[in-house]
Write a structure and sequence with these properties.
The protein has helices at residues 4-21, 25-31, 55-61, 139-144; strands at residues 74-81, 88-95, 106-113, 116-123. It is of the alpha+beta class. The protein has a four-stranded antiparallel β-sheet, covered by helices on one side.
Length: 150
């Protein structure tokens, strides 16, 4: 078992070198004399319901269109928040690799209320449009999220 040790040692040395190469935040501030123009930093915690990063968990737990029945067959991607009202999000549920013949996929909307994302609509056509089973989002939100109704 002598063979693996040099590899393990190299990994440990590499990991230690990488960990040691990051400077503390104070060091970075000392080097930067002016902030980048028009840069704003917004953390997920500052956004409603934790922002876009928390939408996938809500989608996988949602009973809308049976999303909670097959959460391993799809991946939640392309999550975007409406600029006019970040309590609204759009997402795509796309088949996991190898699940294309089993899971069709689609797009959906989620709304943040009382600190919780809730999927409001999901499907392959007319998602978020008037006349469906749920009320559509405000028109400014529809425009922000690229909802195109027939």
């Amino acid at each position: 078992m002598r063979g693996p040790w040099p590899i393990v040692a190299a990994v440990v040395v590499t990991t230690a070198a990488c960990a040691g190469s990051s400077a503390s935040p104070a060091t970075h501030r000392a080097r930067s004399t002016t902030p980048a123009p028009s840069t704003t930093t917004t953390t997920g915690a500052a956004l409603p319901c934790g922002g876009a990063t928390t939408v996938p968990a809500a989608v996988r737990a949602s009973p809308v269109a049976g999303l909670d029945q097959n959460p391993t067959q799809y991946q939640v991607q392309n999550v975007s928040l409406a600029r006019s009202d970040p309590t609204w999000a759009r997402f795509d549920a796309l088949p996991q690799p190898g699940q294309e013949g089993v899971y069709q996929g689609g797009s959906g909307l989620a709304h943040c209320a009382a600190g919780v994302w809730t999927v409001t609509d999901f499907g392959t056509a007319a998602v978020g449009c008037p006349g469906g089973p749920v009320a559509p989002p405000p028109s400014a939100v529809s425009a922000d999220l690229g909802i195109d109704c027939p």
